[in-house]
Write a structure and sequence with these properties.
The structure is a homodimer. Chain A is mainly α. The first copy, chain A, has 12 helices and 2 strands; from the N terminus they run αααααααααααββα. In chain A, helix 1 crosses helix 4, helix 4 runs parallel beside helix 7 and helix 5 runs antiparallel to helix 7. The first copy, chain A, binds a DNA duplex through helix 3.
Chain lengths: 234, 234
DNA sequence: ACCTGAACACCGTTCAAGT
DNA sequence: ACCTGAACACCGTTCAAGT
């Protein structure tokens, strides 16, 4: 019972808020958000569960911290992007930042769920949105329009969208589509016809909830184009 | 311990899946999703917790069922809408349906969270989206564009969006804005200036996560206008 | 200052048993 | 067929105690 440490080498380094949070990210990366329990995290850090409470107020605070770590990653990623000057091509500048942010979400597929779940303020998030705001301002947006724009983009600004239905994780949904097709046909004719016509090409490039890159970019461009339109007719 | 029933009159009506689900909605309406536990729900129905398992496989299945009840409400609401024919004015037709759906979300503020949380298929959801699909088709959308449109709208089609930061529920956030203003001023100049300029008018008409009607309609119209543009440019 | 053991209240759930 | 009592494994968390 004693010799089975998951992280042996740093076991003697004293705990710290930072180590706790990064440990939590590691646990979630490995086993998903469900496996991120206080007891589990403690074990991964080679420590008792109650020790965590010295560095973090409670589980909510832990999750807030984890969300901030992830958005911090997003921020760092966005900062490295080399794009056009917002004054010349704000859409491309913003697009590149957001697609960079998306890369972080693809690395941590549980993160979208976590981020949407947090309701408390997040400094890193503020900084990230400030970066977008700067782009809009330098592109000539009024604060009023830029504010609407932030709300309109929502979580898409961070590189993800929450899909409403999807092939259940693990099950390859073929059975459902094949079997229920006739029963659906008369009740949901348009859907059936659509599914017949659509060739859902790249099923492997999906983020958390069946949100693949093509759909993400379509929605993103739709919004960016629309915002540019609003700016011009301003 | 025996005489404190919350729902006394129907206590003798035998349980049923339907009664369980509607009971769950009632519990969530009253105390939020956190209070919807098996034991809690059982008590509200005047029954032991284990009895629920006869009508519902487990808690996940219960929550799936609750989501379906809510989307069923949305569907019913949307069906009563009297709008223009899609062939003549699809945007208004769809807009009215979606704003009707939003009314349901305003009645059950925990529902957006629940719905975004469910990943399994939901027949009611399928029917609702089928209704939107019909509108697009009758308006001349290709299936390909209509499919993109469904993804682009996402949960907005159901009348809600998930806001990323908001004044924490219960706390009136004034303290934060006032106190940290100077510290933010040099790090987040655009945000500070924006907040100074924006008059956040109607703070009481907010859904779940600081998503007020104005912002919702702005984002919705942005998307609908953009889709119409895409339809015209083929 | 930092970590821990024992204990508490609360989950979802199983299973054998009641009517 | 429908409901229940007792029990289990697992949570987050408190609190007094250790070093």
């Amino acid at each position: 019972m004693t010799a089975q440490r998951e992280t042996e080498p740093q076991s003697r380094i004293p705990l710290s808020r930072d180590r706790v949070l990064r440990g939590a990210v590691a646990v979630a990366d490995e086993g998903g958000l469900d496996t991120l329990t206080m007891r589990n995290l403690a074990e991964a850090l080679g420590v008792e569960a109650m020790s965590l409470y010295y560095h973090v107020a409670n589980k909510e605070a832990l999750l807030d911290g984890v969300a901030e770590v992830i958005v911090g990653e997003v921020l760092a990623e966005a900062e490295t992007v080399e794009g056009p000057a917002p004054e010349e091509d704000w859409k491309t500048a913003m697009r590149l930042r957001i697609l960079a942010a998306r890369q972080v979400m693809l690395r941590h597929r549980w993160a979208p769920y976590l981020i949407e779940t947090r309701t408390t303020m997040n400094p890193a998030l503020l900084h990230y949105y400030h970066g977008l705001l700067e782009i809009w301002r330098r592109a000539g947006f009024s604060y009023d329009l830029a504010h609407h724009a932030m709300h309109a983009l929502g979580s898409r600004a961070l590189g993800f969208t929450q899909e409403l239905f999807e092939p259940a994780p693990g099950s390859d949904d073929e059975s459902v589509t094949d079997e229920m097709f006739e029963k659906m046909a008369d009740q949901l004719p348009y859907l059936v016809e659509m599914l017949g016509e659509i060739s859902h090409d790249d099923p492997e490039t999906t983020i958390g909830w069946c949100d693949d890159q093509t759909e993400f970019e379509f929605g993103l461009d739709l919004l960016l184009d629309g915002l540019e339109q609003r700016r011009l007719t301003g």
